[in-house]
Design goal:
The chain is α+β, with helices and mostly antiparallel strands. The protein has 2 domains: 112 residues, no CATH class; 34 residues, no CATH class. Helix content is 43%, strand content 16%. The chain contains 6 helices and 6 strands; from the N terminus they run αααββαββββαα. A two-stranded antiparallel ribbon has the order 1-2. It is elongated.
């Protein structure tokens, strides 16, 4: 078929190269990635903002509860709810209009409960990069140091620092 191509990766050759460069096998490095991701997940959840449920006003936590790392080959990617990007980067003032109904209904503490509007002129939000706060918390508490210590200890006679 025209335009198709195949990429083949020789992970054994990569593993051998990593042993020569770092003195350890990739699976050991992957365990460090997994260990670090588990630590960071907890500190990120500690720092994630928790709003209120739009319908009931009860404590929210969808963003916090959605945070998790997808562990890949020598790396991890932080995932969460789609609106996390707006929390992290902030938003400019904007108009919010209903999509599926004729009005917007949500919990608004300043109104003392549930509010209903045809449209809302939202003032925007300040950026809240809770990720930085979560990373700083893990660093300040020495949690990542513990992960790296476990990693170096696990190397035994394989090499390392």
């Amino acid at each position: 078929m025209s335009g198709m191509f195949t990429v083949t990766t020789d992970f054994q050759a990569f593993d051998d190269l990593m042993v020569r460069i770092t003195g350890t096998k990739v699976d050991r490095l992957n365990s460090l990635v997994k260990d670090s991701a588990e630590i960071l997940t907890e500190t990120l959840k500690t720092e994630a903002p928790v709003g209120h449920d739009a319908e009931t006003g009860a404590a929210g936590g969808r963003l916090r509860d959605s945070l998790m790392f997808q562990i890949g080959y020598l790396g991890a990617t932080l995932e969460g709810v789609g609106y996390a990007q707006f929390v992290i980067t902030g938003t400019r003032p904007h108009v919010i209009r209903p999509r599926a109904s004729r009005a917007l209904a949500f919990y608004w503490a300043r109104m003392g409960g549930r509010a209903v509007f045809a449209k809302v002129n939202h003032p925007g939000t300040r950026p809240n990069d809770f990720r930085r706060k979560g990373f700083d918390l893990a660093y300040d508490m020495g949690l990542l140091d513990e992960a790296f210590s476990r990693f170096w200890s696990s190397l035994g006679g394989e090499g390392g620092a």
